[in-house]
RNA polymerase sigma factor FliA
Amino acid sequence: MSVASEYLQLQRQSADELVRQHAPLVRRIAYHLMGRLPPSVDVSDLIQAGMIGLLEAARNFTTGKNASFETFAGIRIRGAMLDELRRTDWTPRSVHRKVREMAEVVRQIEIETGADADDAEVMRRLGMGAEEYHQVLADAASARLLSLSAPDDADGGAAFDVVDGDSLSPADSVEHEGMREALVEAIGSLPEREQLVMSLYYEEELNLKEIGAVLGVTESRVCQIHGQAIVRLRARMSGWHEGQAERSAKQRKGTKGM
């Protein structure tokens, strides 16, 4: 056996051992994510995607890095699971449509009043009863509807998608940074309880039951508050997208005139 072949064989053995040792990490991450996802998601699909992420991590990890293999693998495993969730969007189109309609009504009310849209007024304008209204909020919270970088007619997307900055052109990088700043500002303008739920869910990574324990309310109520925050953010970010579209159009027009 040549030196090169021997080296490759040792690499494969080392990768296989890392996969065996850290397989429980995949299940742990999968079940942690499941606490924040609707029941329609199959945990076995997440585990399968996570195992692929673990295998890729084992093949690409090199010693001497600052991060441990478990940290490195955890990032790859989680990323593979999120990619799987993005690839298989379980949300019916009707849900996306209703949330878009609700966000537009919220936006209209807030433009007219200069204040946070009131639930009762949103229901009145949509012609919805309380039960249907709360169901749409629950759907908004459990589905990946907050694709704030997507146009209004898009059917979905991942919540708070993280874009690889290295893959962006200079113009795209400026736009992405502008969107992130607008999103941070929009979150900061939410009612206090909605801000807290968003922080506990996305930053602290608590599930709805854990957030309910913190706030002293039921899990279903947390789901509604989360949905209200998502709808409100979608409404407020739509103005930023319209302004961005206008700026892009002016830039294209100016380029043609040169």
